[in-house]
Write a structure and sequence with these properties.
Structural class: mainly alpha
Shape: globular
Radius of gyration: 21 Å
CATH superfamily of the largest domain: MFS general substrate transporter like domains
Largest sheet: none
Strand content: under 5%
Distance between the termini: 31 Å
Number of helices: 18
Helix content: over 70%
CATH topology of the largest domain: Growth Hormone, Chain: A
Order of helices and strands: HHHHHHHHHHHHHHHHHH
Bound molecules: beta-D-glucopyranose
Number of domains: 2
Length: about 450
Amino acid sequence: MKGYVILISVVAALGGLLFGFDTAVISGTINFIQPYFGLSEAGLGWTVSSLLFGCIAGVFLAGKAGDRYGRKKVLMMAALLFFISAVGSASAHSLIFFLFARILGGLAVGVASILSPMYIAELAPARYRGTLVSLNQLAIVVGILVAFFSNYLLVNTGENNWRWMLLVMAAPAILLYFSLFLVPESPRWLVARGRNKDALRVLVKTSGSEFSSAQLHEIEETLRNQEESTYRDLLAPKIKPLLFIGIILAVFQQITGINTIMYYAPKIFANVGQSNASALVQTILIGGTNLIFTLVAMALIDRFGRKLLIIIGSTGMMIMLAGLSVLYFTNQTSSIWLLVFILGYIAFFAASLGPALWVVAAELFPNRLRSKGMSVAIVSLWIACAVVSIAFPIMLEKLSGGITFLIFALICLTNLLYVLNFVPETKGKTLEELEKHFAE
Ligand code: BGC
């Protein structure tokens, strides 16, 4: 694989790192911003979820702007937004200002959540596309881990500790902005804009000179005589089924419960009387497991395919969640099995649905509609994410842990059946071959 392609993917994946960091950093600031801004419990809930509203808007923005101005320029804009959000939220003296800064960060997360994986998919050679797009998931996971760590390190820096925690994000934002100058625009986007010579130059560097002309030709074919796309085009008979697959997989990635653990692990441990296990240990165990098994997915995804990984992963997640449910029903939540099931669940997610959803979502749609199709799928992901994060504490309290985790286990089973029957395998083929295949 060419070093150049790896460089491009690493730069784009910095967008994923900021996505992970920004969604996770808030957890460490909660105990300090709540008294500072005088927030009630409900007010805190809104403040924390303000980011998600920004995300939803950001995904739509990226869908449109990514087509008009190019993937690279819009990612640069996201880097600036991340920077402004970091400095703004860190220096906020009023709640309104703080919320505004967090929503701007959310916009950036939304943009990065689709443009980073999409941009990598559009630049990567078919054989390695799964691994390279999964690099973005690896970066998300690292971003989450870095946020937890830096929060931990900064917690004792006095009354401005939460400001420092939020300010940290300015550094990777600057890095993303400047490193984007090193990478080219997506060849697929260049062709869509009629800049075929520029596209060829990029393809020579990413795919090698022997394949580049043929590839350019294939891309031109898929974009020939096509007018500028609209969201309505996603409802065309050949595209609609792909749109459904994208939306359903994205929603399943969230409603199988990953963020109940990622966002609420300390609460789960505290609820079952294990609050003395230090937050750091839990973070290392959960973050470390997530990281290691994302690497496993990266090694396997182009060999075994996306579908097999999701099938194995969903089965494993289901078993782990059923195990958690039994622990709650039988009052054995203080046993070591709690940790085993939680870590097992994270491992199966990280090796399957975690990266595979982003890979498939970036591969499903034809060149002309990729940006818009992916944005609709990923908006559904963010809405599902918001619903699950708001519902989970209520479910735990009203339904008990046993029923809550049983419900998540059944959702994994549904996901498994859905993937077995409806999700196509996308490994190994170029985006243009996939496009032809789906159009038949
Ligand atoms: C999901 C996030 C999740 C993260 C955890 C991502 O693929 O979309 O919601 O927090 O994985 O690793």
